[in-house]
């Protein structure tokens, strides 16, 4: 187990039992204490030093009580059917169809069920394919101070992995028909879920995985979290990780300063719209790069590969670059 996570777990027990003066417990990463992170309303300066008060706040989040799971299908594309973990009767009377693909969506920091990530990807996937879309609502764990939300990521992932195991058992489903998509903190959570399921998920998409607090974090998104893992980088070095993290990593426009965006917050969230368009229209064609520097500079002329989409590109690896338009449609062909 990661020593930081173990320390945090021990601190939760001690701090909640014995209120103490606010003290620094863990310094995440080796960089500056304060860094900017994209929130729902724009960039926020966040503190990456975990304090006793942060641990106390994290202890108030209980995924068993606070996480929600909402089913959307073509029969109910706008109004969800809530299906809590363990409620077999609700699952049986819902529109869930075990014979169809199941898509799990995991949002990022400060997001809610009505944030762009959920709204656009639910609509896009149901337009592209007749699937079960389950939106994970961990907004109570995510809608707090960044360092607190970061430490809630693993706790939520534990619950999501248990939910998927229950869903498979209760429906008689097949994990080979699952696609998990996460954004920002949710991208790392998607990876942890895949890890806890033994790397058996066939397709995991990480949309601009969060950077602050994840550079040296053992739980950051990894290539072997699923059978095929794909990462889309749109705000590298600010809110999003710079390094390649999946089987295939795409760096649209060099991974930063997305065309049509005026700030990093827009760039961090632009990957959501690229993913949505890739589901309904396709067209994002990347060229393989020799290395990361080539991807950042756009000096790539290798084999082509489509970015995103509803189907895993199992067996492909590498780093890819492509250019996008400033406005929708974003793909250039």
Secondary structure layout:
Blueprint: H1 3-17, E1 24-27, E2 34-39, E3 42-47, E4 49-51, H2 52-58, H3 63-66, E5 68-73, E6 76-82, H4 88-93, E7 102-106, H5 116-128, E8 132-137, H6 139-142, H7 146-171, E9 178-183, H8 185-196, E10 204-207, E11 229-232, E12 248-252, H9 264-280, E13 285-289, H10 292-297, E14 304-306, E15 318-322
Parallel strand pairs: 7-8, 7-9, 9-10, 10-11, 11-12, 12-15
Antiparallel strand pairs: 1-4, 2-3, 5-6, 5-8, 13-14, 13-15
Helix pairs in contact: 1-2, 2-7, 5-9, 7-8
Based on the structure given, which CATH architecture is correct? 3-Layer(aba) Sandwich
Uncertain ranges? 10-19
Measured between the Cα atoms of the first and last residue, the distance is 45 Å
| Strand proportion | 15-25%
Largest sheet, spatial ordering of strands: 6-5-8-7-9-10-11-12-15-13-14
Radius of gyration of CA atoms, rounded to a whole number:
19 Å
The fold-level CATH name is Rossmann fold
SS-based structural class? Answer: alpha/beta
The total strand number stands at 15
